[in-house]
Amino acid sequence: MNTSKTLKTLKIIKRFSFVNADRKNIFYYIKRDWILYALLVVPMVFLYLFFYRPMYGLQLAFKEYSITSTISASPWVGFDVFKEIFSMREFPLVLRNTLGLSLLDLVFGFPAPILLAILLNEISSKWFKKTSQTLLYLPHFLSWVIIASIMYQLFAPQSGLVNILITKMGGEFVPFLTENIHWVITYVLVGVWQNVGWGTIIYLATIAGINSELYEAAVVDGAGRFGKIWHITLPGLKSTIIVLLIINLGRIMGSSFDRSMNMANPLVMDVANVISIYVYDVGLKSLRFNVATAVGLFQSVIGFILVLLTNFIAKRAGEQGIT
Question: Is the whole model's pTM more than 0.90, yes or no?
Answer without folding.
Answer: no
